[in-house]
Specification:
Layout lengths: L9 H8 L8 H10 L12 H7 L10
Amino acid sequence: MVPLVGARRREWLEEALGALSVTLGPEDLAALERAVPKGAAAGDCYPAAQKAHLDSEAGHGGAG
């Protein structure tokens, strides 16, 4: 498990870093594997045309 950090604020970063202290046991890992089997979350979230509209930096001098 990797925390996804949208750390625009220090308190959000601190909250996300708290995930580093979480320890998952064998039962936890097995439950996660049952809930989200390997490959279940593969692929793009959005079609390419729609994804272009989601880029917050596009058209604002960003790299997009």
